[in-house]
Write a structure and sequence with these properties.
Belongs to the metallo-dependent hydrolases superfamily. Hydantoinase/dihydropyrimidinase family. GO terms for molecular function: dihydropyrimidinase activity. This is Dihydropyrimidinase. It comes from Trichostrongylus colubriformis. By secondary structure, this protein is of the alpha/beta class. The chain has a single domain (2-142), classed as TIM Barrel (Alpha-Beta Barrel), CATH 3.20.20. It is built from 7 helices and 4 strands, in the order H-E-H-E-H-H-H-E-H-E-H. The chain has helices at 2-8, 32-45, 56-68, 75-80, 83-100, 112-123, 134-138; strands at 17-21, 48-52, 104-109, 128-132. Strand 3, helix 6 (112-123) and strand 4 form a beta-alpha-beta unit. Helix 2 packs across helix 5 (83-100) and helix 5 packs parallel to helix 6. The chain starts with a helix and ends in a 9-residue tail after the last helix.
């Protein structure tokens, strides 16, 4: 993968960033060591690392538990993905980016906790950007329940 990344940043391809997923276990999710190695490569080749930051391991376990309990409606989405899991993964991604000396763009920031983690790392001088999703910052999940 590292060699492919090196090729893709060449002018004839025009790629300048690579996206990593810390969520979606069994599909897109990378392990921490893969993410860190990817950021080291991005740093070395001058690319921007982008990350979808959620704790995929815990979400997978919570999702399984909810399905086992028969919770299959949209309310299960927020129950399996509490704000703290996004905030934790965002902070973890920011720490690893700092250690890799790699600029980081956190996509789809849905929670105040994740935004706070980004702000704290920016205040330390780390090159971290966040892409807020306005709807995610303005709602509390209660709209998933029939009233």
């Amino acid at each position: 993968i590292e060699r492919e990344m090196e090729q893709l940043v060449k002018p004839e391809y025009g790629i300048n960033s690579f996206k990593f997923f810390l969520a979606y276990m069994g599909m897109f999710m990378v392990r921490d060591e893969e993410f860190y190695q990817g950021m080291l490569t991005c740093s070395r080749i001058g690319a921007l690392a982008r990350v979808h930051a959620e704790n995929g391991s815990v979400i997978a376990e919570k999702s399984k538990t909810l399905l086992d309990q028969g919770i299959t409606g949209p309310e299960g989405h927020t129950q399996s993905r509490p704000e703290e899991l996004e905030a934790e993964a965002t902070n973890r991604a920011c720490v690893m980016a700092s250690q890799a000396n790699c600029p980081l763009y956190v996509v789809h920031v849905m929670s105040k906790g994740a935004a706070k983690a980004i702000a704290q790392h920016r205040q330390k001088g780390h090159i971290i950007f966040g892409e807020p999703i306005a709807a995610g910052l303005a709602v509390d999940g209660s709209h998933y329940y029939n009233k």
